[in-house]
Specification:
With about 200 residues, the chain is α/β, with parallel strands linked by helices. It is built from six helices and nine strands. The protein has two domains: about 100 residues, Rossmann fold; about 90 residues, Formyl transferase, N-terminal domain (Rossmann fold, 3-Layer(aba) Sandwich), CATH 3.40.50. The chain binds 5-O-phosphono-beta-D-ribofuranosylamine.
């Protein structure tokens, strides 16, 4: 813990492999001056939350089931503020965020999506890509705004779609790139060496 570190708040719902890739990047010095301040899951059974506990991180379950989105999000906002989070990273967080949540952290929420946006937003992006017949897909790290999978693109990494690919094969190829992309994008944003011009991220 270093008081000068930028504090990341991770939201997840499942496996947590992107969270682990981020945590490992911090440990390996690939994201400088950052620490994971808190990991929050909306599902108690998420493997990612067990992994966060194993690493000795602050890990919270804020159960979403049966609750109004606004109430659930208000509790998450309070937890993130309590942990003085500078940047919120959605890492397989499978629930829509309310406009109030997005406004609570303006330009300070990132998401990773398993397609080259604006192609194939929403659920099952890898299946959508296969069904459409694209020959290149990939992943996108973007700033979260009030529209689904829509905000300014920080970084994309592409992969080929190969003959014979099924959803699992394409997903695995994309996931390997996600693990690289998310850490690079976080480092970019935390460096502050960029400007957003219209919809464009421009390194400075
Ligand atoms: C990833 O494919 C990510 O792009 C999407 O949800 C999946 C989460 O995987 N948003 P994991 O929980 O990080 O392993």
């Amino acid at each position: 813990m270093n008081v000068n570190n930028k504090k990341l708040g991770i939201l997840l719902s499942g496996r947590g492999s992107n969270f682990l890739a981020i945590a490992e990047s911090i440990d390996a010095g690939r994201i400088l001056g950052a620490e994971v301040a808190v990991v929050i899951s909306n599902r108690a059974e998420a493997a990612g939350i067990a992994a966060a506990r194993e690493r000795g991180l602050n890990a919270l379950v804020i159960e979403a089931r049966g609750r109004k989105r606004a109430d659930h999000d208000a509790e998450m906002i309070a937890a993130l503020r309590e942990h003085r989070v500078d940047l919120v990273c959605l890492a397989g967080y499978m629930r829509l965020l309310s406009p109030e949540f997005v406004r609570a952290f303006p330009q300070r929420i990132l998401n990773i999506h398993p397609s080259l946006l604006p192609a194939f937003p929403g659920l099952d992006a890898q299946r959508q890509a296969l069904e459409y017949g694209v020959q290149v897909s990939g992943c996108t790290v973007h700033v979260v705004d009030e529209e689904l999978d829509h905000g300014v693109i920080i970084l994309q990494r592409a992969v080929p779609v190969l003959p014979g690919d099924d959803e699992a094969a394409l997903s695995a190829r994309i996931l390997a790139e996600e693990h690289l992309a998310y850490s690079q994008a976080i480092a970019r944003v935390l460096s502050g060496n960029y400007a957003i011009v219209g919809r464009r991220y421009e390194a400075r």
